[in-house]
């Protein structure tokens, strides 16, 4: 069993533990590489089935390619897809010009918390990784959110020897992170090995590509000539540029992601 086999086995075990021990589950699907790998792992874990809905929080500022890929893939795989937008915030004119942190809070964090309550989810499966961003390195695999959707990163149970806390107070919901121990390079090597179909925004055009996907006004591309998965892997092995170098909200506030995640962000 090689490194990717071990990561895959751990992720499948986590998915099955969540399905066995938690109540109503949903999977957050951003259409990016991580959550699309998670989709692939779900189908492996449940023998070709996807036994819970996939949730896309649509901020109304998504890239057109994201919407096209989402709808095409959901139809091809017959996914139970929930697309949710904080319509009131959009109606009130929320946009990045009012402040990127404020905009993310309204169109992503609040929207996600609304989804949890509207559909009565007990757990959300999320494709976050510890190496992607500082606040995510503080996460647990089974991570509690209280009745107000808040995350207390200072009060989390240990997770030793693949023993996870899965009983939580009524009214709380759980974020489940099957990819927490994967790296960006692991993700791309797994995509290559499994031939996972990925949105082509990750591949270079005119010497630029995206390494991380978000809303169109807040996500920039990075210089690159990597036009396929093999070239991306080679590029990552030699880069010292952060994966989120193109994400504008990270530049607005050094603690932006931690503040958003404390309030319930994915």
From TrEMBL:
Domain of life of the source: Bacteria
Enzyme class: transferase
Keywords: ATP-binding, Nucleotide-binding, Nucleotidyltransferase, Transferase
Domain Phosphoadenosine phosphosulphate reductase: 27-220
Single annotated GO MF: ATP binding
Entry-linked InterPro entries: PAPS_reduct_dom, Rossmann-like_a/b/a_fold, SO4_adenylTrfase_ssu, Sulfate_adenylyltrnsfr_sub2
EC code(s) of this entry: 2.7.7.4
Signal sequence, renumbered to the chain: none
GO process annotations (BP): sulfate assimilation
Record-linked SUPFAM superfamilies: Adenine nucleotide alpha hydrolases-like
Family: Belongs to the PAPS reductase family. CysD subfamily.
PANTHER family attached to this UniProt entry: SULFATE ADENYLYLTRANSFERASE SUBUNIT 2
Protein name from the UniProt record: Sulfate adenylyltransferase subunit 2
């Amino acid at each position: 069993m090689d490194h990717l086999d071990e990561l895959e086995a751990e992720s499948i075990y986590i998915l099955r533990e969540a399905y066995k021990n938690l109540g109503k589950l949903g999977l957050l699907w951003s259409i990016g590489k991580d959550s699309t790998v998670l989709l692939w792992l779900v189908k492996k874990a449940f023998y070709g089935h996807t036994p819970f809905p996939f949730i896309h929080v649509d901020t109304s500022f998504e890239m057109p390619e994201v919407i096209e890929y989402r709808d095409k893939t959901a139809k091809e795989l017959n996914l139970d897809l929930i697309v949710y937008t904080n319509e009131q915030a959009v109606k009130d004119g929320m946009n990045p010009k009012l402040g990127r942190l404020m905009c993310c809070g309204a169109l992503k964090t609040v929207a996600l918390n609304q989804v949890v309550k509207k559909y009565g989810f007990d757990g959300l499966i999320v494709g976050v990784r510890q190496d992607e961003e500082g606040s995510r390195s503080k996460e647990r695999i089974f991570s509690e959110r209280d009745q107000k959707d808040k995350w207390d990163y200072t009060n989390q149970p240990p997770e030793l020897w693949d023993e996870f806390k899965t009983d939580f107070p009524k009214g709380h919901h759980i974020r489940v992170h099957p990819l927490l121990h994967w790296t960006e390079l692991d993700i791309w090597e797994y995509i290559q090995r499994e031939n996972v179909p990925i949105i082509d925004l990750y591949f270079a055009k005119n010497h630029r590509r995206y390494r991380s996907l978000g809303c169109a006004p807040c996500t920039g591309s990075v210089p690159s000539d990597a036009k396929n998965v093999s070239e991306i892997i080679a590029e990552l092995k030699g880069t010292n540029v952060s994966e989120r170098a193109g994400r504008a909200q990270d530049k607005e506030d050094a603690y932006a992601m931690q503040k958003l995640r404390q309030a319930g962000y994915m």
